[in-house]
């Protein structure tokens, strides 16, 4: 899987271990989700374009480089993707945000999109956020939606990926890079990632 990047760093490993722990409560879970996402964003944005600007330091005129974060769009998949949004926005505060709500129909097992609102995306760099890349079905539906809306430069960011989900996305969208903090062992019979961290949405918002 050439397009899967596991961002392996001691800080990420440390934070992810606390995140996985069943004893970690929602406040810390949200803080860690934000921090890990911020660290992933550092790697996932290496390719974005910079432009030169002239500035004055207290010593002299000089040229520096800047990114155009207005040309970045963040697309969290509701609801757990919301937990990652602040991590990206803390580094690129002028990015626009689009939302896609998807659930899996328990009868058909097909993804159902129940809400979508995207800003104009033109040639923007788009970061789709899905903390748990499990089967990959929701991420794939969100990526399809963004592509249909004209998105061309799409990156998927997640906290934990399963081998099944990563290979599904990777073969369906060979042009899309996936950044994750961990590639876990497998999916269980209920499509939860093992060892994983449980249900990310429930842990973010204490709904169980
Ligand atoms: N969604 C989650 O929140 N956790 C999983 O393990 C799989 C999907």
From TrEMBL:
Record-linked SUPFAM superfamilies: PRTase-like
One GO location term (cellular component): cytoplasm
Regulation: Allosterically activated by GTP.
Pfam families given in the database record: UPRTase
Stretches assigned to the Phosphoribosyltransferase domain: 6-207
GO biological process: UMP salvage; uracil salvage
InterPro entries tied to this protein: PRTase-like (IPR029057), PRTase_dom (IPR000836), Upp_B (IPR034332), UPRT (IPR005765), UPRTase/APRTase (IPR050054)
Entry note: cofactor: Binds 1 Mg(2+) ion per subunit. The magnesium is bound as Mg-PRPP.
Residues holding uracil: 193, 198-200
Enzyme class, broadest EC rank: transferase
Protein family membership: Belongs to the UPRTase family.
NCBIfam families: PRK00129.1, upp
Name of this protein: Uracil phosphoribosyltransferase
Organism: Kosmotoga arenicorallina S304
